[in-house]
Amino acid sequence: MTSRRVVYKDSSGSYQAAAGFEAFRAAGAPDSDLFAIRIAEVDAPSVRNALVVMSAGQKISSSGHMSGVTGQASNWDDTCGDVSCPNVTLDGRSLAMKLRHQGWLPAATTWMAVVNDNNFDHLSDSGTKQQLVNGFVQWLQAQVRPETRSIYLAGSSRGGCLVMLMAQQLRNNPSLDGIELYVSSFDGVCKYTQGELGTTGDKINNPVRPSFTSYGGWATDLSAQFPRRARLHIFHIAGGEEVAPLTGIRAFSAYSGTPPKTGSNLDWGWYKQNWVKWKHKEIGNPYTEPSSSERAQAVSETLDAQLTWLDGWF
Question: What is the pTM of this model?
Answer without folding.
Answer: 0.97
